[in-house]
Amino acid sequence: KKIILLIFILSIAAFARAEWRVDFTVEAPGTTIFSRAFGVAEGATDGYDVLHDFPLFIGVDDTTAYFSVDGGIITALSRDMRDNYAGEHWWELVFSHMSTSIVTWLSDSLPTVGDFMVGFNHPDSIPSEWFDMRIVGMAVLPAGRNITFRWFMPAGSDSIPPYVTSWSPADGEVDVPRETDISCEVFDDGTGVDQSTIQLRVNGIDVSWLIAIDSIGGGFSVDYNPPLDFGWNSDVTCILSAYDLDTPSNFVGDTVIWRTLADSLAFEVAGTVGTGDPMAPLDGAIVTISDRADTTGSDGYFHFDSISEGAYTIRANAAGYTQETRWVWIGSDTLINIVLEIAPSPDVLIIDYDSGIQPFGDDTTGEERIIAGLFDFLPYTFELTAQNPDIATLDLVPYRFVILVTPVRADGGHAVIPDDELDLLSMWLGDDGRILWIAPDAGPDYEEGTLAGADFFGMFGAEYENDGRPATPDGNIARLYGDASDFWIDLDVEYSHLAEADNYLDEFSAAESTAYISVWSQDSGPPPVSATGRMVCYDSGTHRSVIVSFLFGGIIDGIFPNSASNVLRAAMTYLDAPSSVSEGPKRPKTVRLDIYPNPFNGACAIEAMGAIEIYNVSGRLVRFIPSARPALHFWDGADDEGRRLPGGVYLVRDAASGRSAKVVYLR
């Protein structure tokens, strides 16, 4: 079969820096003839270069020959060009699903500069023997072998790199004017400096496109006029790099560092941080300006000197208070008084009373940390207590919700909340409180414990039915289920803990007419089986409560609604609703506007007190969904005409309550 040879070498320049390309053909019985090429070029690299290389998109079963390259989505090339400043390159040609292959090149057309060698190798090795491509014009390779081309340029007579002199400002100089120009000179005593490679970086930024280069005897002068003044009393780092004209090239990178003048017109910034009206000074507030900080004393006073003229951000922080931020222009001595507002209490107090038991196979993550992480997806703020706190010392009044985490039954002892502290929790819950109790072993520890424990357990509307079963081999729970009335879509979530923490998890039934099972599990065994309830929601008329006997950390997140965050959202939504009977003074309730999931890219659910209005960032009403009562709305990202809106941030307003919230629509 006739082998088609291509004409392959571009014109050859008289000096070693010239670009060149070698073309050749690859042929195997029963395949088409492939043309491939390798070479060097100005600006090319060892990776994929858009202007030099030809990408080759191949499938796993394709029959072809290619140059492999590590270039992200580009992994194969039919033409591979390399940097012409280096004096040696290797190109490996890989054969994919090919039988005995013939590779042919035209020896007389190789560039006159450099040695061209060819070797044959197994894919996981390098050639053990090299052949001169100027003598050999063809290679025959058996299946499973690759071919490697090597171009080598012996070192030239110039082995000394260029050098840089006459830096202005000089290295180590101080009190340099902020508006100074930068200059230097670069020389080479051998082949000369390659002007096209001269590069200047200032404070890490390449400013080569702004420099002026002029030829001088034996080299070049470099001048840079910065478009902006440098900062006061700041270090400036300049790096000048260049190559010479030899091949392989010699490289220089010269660095100087100098410091600008300290501001002789610096000003003082001072003031007081306090709270209230009239303002009372705050001790221990931290005030920052630029990269400097000061802490107030008992008089609330802070002070900074040597502040240069300009625009600044001043921030003041203090524990228990909201941060205050000011944007100011400093052009003279400035006095600033900053008033901080008392930070509102978080919505939720997470009481960590699980005795430090780590049910998730490590020594850092407890169930309380899992719950805290889930609040990243929910519109509630929270605070986490220390381990097994003295509940009598906790002020529960400011919080709208309590999440109580008690432990699984594990080897070794674990603490049960003392009776007097249980009585305090019972009193807070009875006064229109809201508690989510993560209680995998509440039955044995509390319902069958002391009288105070049984009374507290009784406030959750649950009947303790069964102590579960051993964790091995399948654990108490394989899946959790819930109705769409709580989870917007029927819940079917995989639960796979299968550890000591999944041993003898309690099973509940509803003990009161206003309690119901919102999450249940599959039938358990061995018999007798009395209940499969895993989350009980209870409305007593004076309080609302939720008790669960699974761990949120055991839930395997799937597609919405089957996620731990959605299960927690459903529990919090239930707790957030008003009790069915209002008796006596109650803590004020905040009407919530819930949007889930947020962000979304298909549809989101919006729980509101009535009709909802959706506005774009320009303030234009794009969608109105009517309702005369509390309802769960669904929005698919379309306007009132059914047209898909662009992705972005939208404002959702509850027309009944006036509450609004942002939602992010992803497209």
Give structural notes.
By secondary structure, this protein is mostly beta strands. Strands 1, 2, 3, 4, 5, 6, 7, 8, 9, 10 and 11 form an eleven-stranded mixed sheet that branches. α2 (419-430) links the parallel β30 and β31 (434-438).
Attribute tags:
667 residues; mainly beta; ten-stranded mixed sheet; 6 helices; 46 strands; 38% strand; disordered N terminus
How is the secondary structure organized here?
Blueprint: E1 20-27, E2 34-41, E3 54-55, E4 64-71, E5 74-83, E6 88-96, E7 101-104, E8 115-121, E9 131-132, E10 138-141, E11 146-152, E12 163-168, E13 182-187, E14 199-202, E15 205-206, E16 212-216, E17 219-224, E18 235-243, E19 251-259, E20 267-275, E21 280-281, E22 286-289, E23 292-295, E24 301-307, E25 310-317, E26 324-330, E27 334-339, E28 348-352, H1 367-374, E29 382-384, E30 401-405, H2 419-430, E31 434-438, H3 442-447, H4 451-458, E32 462-466, E33 479-482, H5 484-487, E34 491-495, E35 507-510, E36 515-521, E37 533-539, E38 544-548, E39 555-556, H6 564-576, E40 594-596, E41 604-608, E42 612-615, E43 621-625, E44 631-635, E45 648-654, E46 660-665
Helix pairs in contact: 2-4
Can you describe this structure in just a few lines?
The protein is mainly beta and 667 residues long.
Radius of gyration: 37 Å
How would you characterize the largest beta sheet? 11 strands, mixed
**Alpha plus pi helix count:** 6
Shape: extended
Question: Low-confidence segments, ≥5 residues, pLDDT <50?
Answer: 1-16, 582-590
Task: Report the β-strand fraction as a percent range.
Answer: 35-45%
Helix content: under 10%
Q: In whole angstroms, how far apart are the ends?
A: 55 Å
- Structural category is mainly beta
Mean pLDDT over all positions: 86
What is the total tally of β strands? Answer: 46
